[in-house]
Amino acid sequence: MLSALRKYLLIPRLIRLSSSAPKDPLTAWDQYWGNVRSTGASGDVLWDSGSDHELNGYLSKLAKLDPALPVVDVGCGNGSFTRLLAGHFPLALGLDYSANAIDRARQESAG
Fold this sequence. Notes:
Helix content: 40-55%
Oligomer: single chain
Order of helices and strands: HHHHEHEH
Radius of gyration: 15 Å
């Protein structure tokens, strides 16, 4: 509960920081992912819950897909959701706009 509340307390900081953020989306996202120190439930990424809760909400819809086909996670960030998808498909491929996000996904997916 406290960790969830802590994420909402970051919103005013994000608003303040966004005013000085680069206007070019590629530069902005790459800078964002380059500054992320940690991921997961207590990390810097607001939408990274560090659990499979989000995936569980999609499982009934994903069950309608052909399980023999690969799945692509567009905007994968650090790849946490892609790694969860990999448990349900023969191949899960993560794509992101930011080279720093892809580097982090590779590091966190090692092994």
